[in-house]
Amino acid sequence: MGVRSIFDVPDVRAEFEKAGINTHFIPFIWKYVIKNPNCEWDEIPDLPSTAYSLLRSKFKTFTSSVDSVINSNDGVTTKLLVKLQNGAFVEAVIMRYDTRLGKYGGKPRPGGPRSTLCISSQVGCKMGCKFCATGSMGFKNNLSSGEIVEQLVHASCLSQIRNVVFMGMGEPLNNYSAVVEAVRAMSGVPFQLSPKRITVSTVGIIHAINKLHKDLPGLNLAVSLHAPVQDVRCQIMPAARAFPL
Questions:
Q1: What is the pLDDT of residues 35-81, one digit of tens each?
Q2: C-alpha span between 13 and 160 (Å, rounded)
Q3: Which of 193, 245, 208 minimizes the C-alpha distance to 224?
Q4: 237 vs 6: CA distance, rounded Å
Q5: How many CA atoms lie within 13 A of 87 on its CB side?
Q6: C-alpha angle 214/220/222, rounded to 5°?
């Protein structure tokens, strides 16, 4: 394992506690890094002296980088190709829309422009769905919670993100712990996304769905059916045999 991301929640918390540093400094560090992505640790003000040496020796501000950014012709969608520190790539996609379009109850809709970020949780995927490009790659590796959160940080430099959907590369519930830690980070300071604005999509891993309901109450769940008939689902989604409708 390489140098860890400052956004790797469990690792940062454990190292701070081990060194006797108050963990309430962590959100403050995140906020500074988000606003100053090219900063050095020594530039962050008002930390205990032990925190600076710990950060320098154990953590990086980012362990991933944006390799390329591609905008759709209409400017509504932006795809980020994110390079991880192991050399692998994942994709994150910003989707912009205007909630005022159309009518609700015969009246104009309230609201305004919004951005939703679709993020990845794995490099590749072992679910093997026939229609999915990621599934054809096979499973490569899980992302850490920090690598998941960093996608949100990278995207936030381009657009104000209102919603997050785990519908990118990978089956989120096969990387359960990292996804749960990432969601907890996103719903806390400084991101402060309501759990109601975060959606985790799954092929339907039943035991993990039950656990998720207890660990992250209020989170949105999306189940990928792709067919209303179990026999058809089994043909296009091998995992459906283990997790029937």
A1: 999 999 999 999 999 999 999 999 999 999 999 999 999 999 999 99
A2: 27
A3: 245
A4: 36
A5: 0
A6: 110
Polymer length in residues for the chain: 245
> Could you give the CA distance from residue 244 to residue 235 in angstroms, rounded to a whole number?
12
pLDDT (tens digit per residue) in 183-216: 999 999 999 999 999 999 999 999 999 999 999 9
Is the pTM for the entire model greater than 0.85?
Answer: yes
Residue with tokens 């960093």: 150
